[in-house]
Automatic annotation (TrEMBL):
Keyword annotations of the record: Membrane, Transmembrane, Transmembrane helix
Protein's UniProt name: DoxX family membrane protein
Top-level taxon of origin: Bacteria
Tagged with keyword Transmembrane: yes
Native source organism of the sequence: Nonomuraea montanisoli
Transmembrane stretches, start-end: 76-96, 103-122
Amino acid sequence: MFGLIILLLATLAGLRLLGALGVRRFASWPASGAHALSLLLLVTASAHFVPAGVTVMPTHADLVAMVPPFMPFPSLMVYATGVLELLGAAGLVMAATRRAAGLALALLFVLLLPANVYAALAGVPFQGGPATPLWVRIPEQGLYIAVALWAARSADGSLIPRPAGTAAVAAARR
């Protein structure tokens, strides 16, 4: 799990460096954060579809094991959350949909929290290793929620109407 945090932060720093070098798409920290989270989601979402024999990354079976027993159709839930992560990743890279995608992803991350709590407390092994402790899972999920909200807050928001006079405030935040 620390590998994902490193991926997120290293991508954020690299994209922001590109922004400092003149790539307009990454001219702000929040825009770079949205793209960094998008890359992270491509990596994590891919695990939702990986067959059990693969050993280089978590698999679909690893994620199914994390689903609490009270949830119906655990395999379908894993596929569905993988699709939602991919849609969220696509939404984050497009300025027009970034706000909606960031808010939807923050909600998704909150809804996925019970699976992380269950996996930690039940000792569900992950990728053949020991269960990730709760003290790691909760802050990591909090980081993803924070970055998703940061990206949403910084977004253009042209698809979401704002009260008159707030466009200048929104532009100043970027």
